[in-house]
Structures
1.
Amino acid sequence: MNHRTIIDLEREAQHVHDPMEPEFVSAFDGAVPARKFLDSGFFFPMRSVTGLSGDGGVGKTLLALQLAVATASADLQWLGFDILRHGRVLFLSAEDDRDEVHIRLAGICEGEGIDLHSLDETLAFLHCAGHDVVLATEEKGRAKPTETFSRLRKACEKVRPKLLILDPLANLFQVNEVNRNAAIACIGLLRGLAIDFEMHVLILAHPSLSGMSSGSGMSGSTGWNNAMRSRLYLTTKRNSNSGDDDQEVDPDARYLTPKKSNYSKLSEAIPLRWEDGRFVRAEEERPFDGVTVQHLEQVRTAFRSSEFRYDHRAGDWGGYLVAEIIGVDIGRGKLLRDLTAMQKAGRRKVRSIISAWMHSDQISIVERKDGRTGRDTKFFRAG
């Protein structure tokens, strides 16, 4: 336990940083400091704040809990990325109650093959569901920290975490989210904690409707995004702003997309899958493996001679023909929930192939009256 003496406190007081005291470059002696990250994916820079956004129910809290477990453990990875700075974690949960946290945590530990109680001294929670946990309020257009913020600081002093997770942003700041100055000040409070405790702060948030439709994953003022040093967006589709409402969504699939990274290169969306109580890194699929030009010509010939509908719910969906020609089992006639993992993968492969052929104008869609129903219906056609 860290017991500080009066002498220690006096020494700390003498070294309080005055941000308005000029410092010349002559003070930059010695080796150039290296940037420090919590993880090998460079998503979470130390002494900084990262935002993780996603629609309600998409799995933000589960993903954050997995990061907490990996950081608090001795040697676990997070989605295949190494944790560079294992240590204590403090998780403030303002949405899920204690029992739900326990259930999720047990599922993660079981999936990772570790004992829940191996985290007894390294993972701590602030169970705040149903309580007022506002960290700052708006006063004359600016953010004013509350007594709860002071209590959070004291909790950090007690735990000394490497990672602080706050869930969710909407419960923590009672400010007008479109007020740029207030947004920057709120994130500034968290950045101050991150610097003071040499830790990383991850805050979970819900995007606005416009943020979801645009694919940005943002909500409110751009001040929130600008003040964070990095930001991630969790979605059920790879292209979250594709606008394809007919796109069939695999309920077990997620995509984690870096939207901002001040200190590292932005990477591509990371495909994830829900498996055994947690998300795991999905293997990148190659839809055109084993698919030839001859397969395409067979599909085009069939589309010229017969009618195949665009709607994947139809019994004569064109995807069934494609699957038959390329020799892939996609569980024809089954409901999505009844498909095996291999059949789901096969269906994703077929949809990717169809999409690519459509983009290259090898096949297209035509809308006309269905001879059986008399309704306007979309059909595939060659070219």
2.
Amino acid sequence: MAKIVSIPYVKKQLEETHLVWLKNSNSYFLLEGPAWFVFDKITGNHAPQAIEKELVGRYEMTAGESRTFISEMKERISSFNEMVPMDHDLDFEQDLDNYRFMPFSEHTYLLKDKCVRFRYSGPALERYIHPLVKHLVIGDGDCKEVLDFELFAYNGEVVFRMNGKVMGIWGAGESHWVKGRIFLEFVNVLHDKTENDWLMTVHASAITNEKKTVLFSAAPGSGKTTMAALLQAKGYHLISDDFVPVDKTMFKAHPFPIAMSVKEGALDVLKSHYPALEETPIVNATPEKKVRYWPIKNDKMGMVFPLKEILFITYDERTDCEFIPLSSADAMKRLVDQVWVPPFADRVETFFEWIDGVSFYELNYSNTPKALKIVEKLFDDE
């Protein structure tokens, strides 16, 4: 077995599971039992014969099974250890800083007390961002300070430029990375911060009762936004939907007032609370997904409270209502694909430390009133 050279990683033990981050690929995975044992030995460059012998003794494998397992783990580690360029590492032509394009549209968005003048080179790129922040549009004459954002196509790629400086270049199919980068810069403008101030961003809804904030994480179509909208109708505050920034010092979730994406199936549940929602136009967010965009008001920027609980939520017609505490290991199996942590070892170590101070739960329901009572109790519990 060839020696694997230089595998920078950060690990955290969660009960019997190890959560591992590999720096070169900026990827997370969880390892248990023999998988962690072999990973630890291979990355420590132990002799393959010694690994095989100990694996046979510890896990009741045959010598053949042991050799096959070690070989498969080595291939997996090698693939995960491959370098993946970040948007700021990509090579690009230097004249892109000065490249001129004919804007398809231009909008000015009010972000707290600052304005972002945003130019889009075409309708497809405008659809990445504008429908989610359309409610923040104001006239240029109302701005004291204006920042220039531009999103344009160049040689089949998508370029984001801020105040004349290229911030990232992505392939045409990487819209989620484009949105994430632009939303992060929006958040920096809103809260007078830089990328270095954030621990992570989370694909979740954030609700606060002005004492603490709870995140609702779910797969698309699982009822996350519907539950958040119902709680807002009951007097709680939805401070962000789908993109939640968390700072690295106090671990507080910060508001980001993009519109809620309300799917067709949620209309019957929500229209009595939001009568105007039924008249809101249906938009093709993607070829497969039709939504109504419902704005979050831009007046909750001071609602910054500690993040103590994360609730993984699923609407399931087969289940009346069940509320289940989760171990950190089980929670991370769901969460690592929903978070973006800046790819630096010190930030990942802080993220791993943050896990210890958070409680995780699972809520599966079809009985909405019962589910709401459970969530309200979660907010009431200190």
3.
Amino acid sequence: MPNSRKRIALLVETSLGSGREILRGIARYARQCGDWQLFHAAGGLHDPPPDWINYWDGDGVIARIQNKAMLEELVSLRVPVVDVLGVCENRFPLVHVNDEAIAEIAAAHFKERNFRHFAFYGIKGENWSERRALGFKNACRDSGTFHILETARKPADHADERFSQVQQWIASLPKPVAIMVCSDQRGLELLEACLSENIPVPEQVAVVGVDNDTALCEISDPPLTSVRGGHSNVGFESAALLDRLIAGDVSPPDPLLVPPNGIVIRESSDIQAISDPVIAKGIHYIRERLSEPITNDTIARAAGVSRTLFQKRFREETGQSIRTYILERRVERAISLIESTDIPLIEVAERTGFRHQEYLGQVVKRATGLTPGILRKKSERA
């Protein structure tokens, strides 16, 4: 009996979170339709197509088309192809994230936090990065100053040169500044530059990346806020489009742009803009020591002013007392640990400065309406 399943080649990298999300979306469609057989070779974004593609006998291809050589290989197959990258002009239909909408989410996040200085760090010559830069600039146009740095992709032996350029740029920016980074990979680099320059994040530089590559976002210091670009839905919609093309439908004349699906807020941007550098220094001290006993005296000393002056300026800047601010940050940190880890609750209490697990339970229930145990179970089901 002949095989009636459609043979689909996937030329999508597994080295980046965005590529893996696209593959997840394709897999979701394949399970739904039930008649696809998938062929995929793991690799990096800039790896050449696998050798087997030259003699492959299939029905369609979904690919991140990198260059003209790859394009010509795919044209020679004479089967329907859907592009999910968009860096190389070609006649194949394109399904892509909406870069302008991604930038608008980042801008709205920063404006909600009262920032007045904005900046973008991207990759020179990459059209998707340039679209995000333009979208971010337009979204921030009437809200304050705007600055941009775009550096070219360079081989590893030039990494120090680019890093030095990023360091100098960050140091020159007015503070506090909200920086959108074109991708999570560049976000890690930016945060490392801030750390090397002793610039507190997020108090003086708040950072938002794109793709929500969980592993990268969580190993960064501090953890990186990131916009969910919508790559899983790109995968699903590209698969649905390919299925229609295989059935004989005409290619759509315009790219299909998939909207982003929100932002995951982490510590790199989770703060209101602090214009007073003394208070920014004190807040950074607090956030770095939430597990320790903290007093107004020690915070003021770290900020380099008297306790009385620090308390006065703190209330003027934040509208609340130091004690209230510390409690709110501890509760936020505790909720995050409860929802995103399986750390025992007694350890959560220790890490967030609560002397007893019982008190942790009281403040978490007051904030969320749920006990820590129920909150954790609810997050596990989500």
